[in-house]
Design goal:
The protein has one domain: TIM Barrel (Alpha-Beta Barrel), CATH 3.20.20.10. About 4% of the residues have low confidence. By secondary structure, it is α/β, with parallel strands linked by helices. The longest helix has 22 residues. The protein is built from ten helices and eight strands.
Length: 271
């Protein structure tokens, strides 16, 4: 955080499940503009360039028609949690040749072949078994993949991600996987209305990255920090986020609670 003035930015988790549905291209344009304005304001508070923050619109659970409206409003990369859902959408929307896909949810090894086939980015790498499965499938496809290492900064057993003290050793293993282009770290903060507890997760990830970058293995990039979702991305930006994953503030609330879609993924994956 590049400021000596304490920041008192609140979360917007009170909006979770209440965001209005985007039902037209104009709705999407309006919502995207509003999010970009909040990104710019958060950057201004800490002296960051808004161009240094990438907005990743998260389309998980939304129907193809909504995704096509988002595309018409200018979205060219979309984030999805479940590989199978993302793969189906990729197939159905193959006519949009410049649309790229980021998989941001937990990956089982038996789904690695799907991600290797279509994704341009995977943000939830947290095991060598998944790295090995992706490497094997990517080599067969003749493709590379940008990846982020997921870190559990909240200490919740319900969340995926490596404990912070295991990340350095994990990174040392990754140069063996030439198809995986490590870009940085990702985290899901505590889902809480207490902004300071949320901020602590982002501070932890940035501090960890700063320490790891001093002796990162060759070829391992740690420039990117993917942190912050619809309810807390402004706090994340204040603490150094370079990628924010925003779903409901762009697409509108989802029809069912997250646990309905991901009963095993734990709480907090709200985007």
């Amino acid at each position: 955080m590049n400021t000596d003035i304490p920041l008192e930015t609140s979360t917007r988790h009170d909006q979770h499940g209440r965001w209005p549905q985007a039902e037209s291209v104009e709705d999407f344009r309006h919502n995207l503009a509003a999010v970009h304005a909040r990104i710019a304001a958060a950057c201004q508070r800490v002296g960051h360039d808004p161009a240094s923050v990438r907005l990743l619109p998260v389309s998980k659970t939304k129907p193809e028609a909504s995704l096509r409206l988002a595309y018409a409003a200018g979205c060219r990369v979309l984030g999805e949690n479940k590989p199978q859902e993302a793969y189906r959408k990729w197939e159905a929307m193959a006519d949009l040749t410049d649309l790229r896909w980021s998989v941001i949810g937990h990956l089982q090894t038996n789904k690695a072949k799907l991600v290797a086939r279509f994704a341009s980015e995977f943000q939830a790498l947290d095991s060598l078994r998944v790295a090995e499965a992706l490497e094997r499938r990517l080599q067969a496809e003749g493709r590379g993949l940008d990846v982020f290492v997921q870190v559990n900064t909240s200490g919740e057993v319900s969340k995926y991600g490596l404990p912070p003290d295991e990340v350095a050793a994990f990174l040392r293993e990754l140069p063996a996987f030439s198809a995986l282009r490590v870009r940085g770290l990702m985290t899901l903060a505590l889902f809480s209305a207490e902004a300071e507890r949320v901020r602590e997760c982002f501070v932890l990830l940035r501090g960890l990255r700063d320490r790891l970058r001093q002796d990162a293995p060759d070829g391992i990039g740690l420039d990117e920090l993917s942190m912050g979702m619809s309810g807390d991305y402004e706090i994340a930006i204040e603490e150094g986020a370079t990628v924010v994953r925003v779903g409901q503030a762009i697409f509108g609330a989802r029809a069912m609670p997250d646990a309905y879609y991901w009963p095993s993924a734990g709480e907090g994956e709200t985007n």
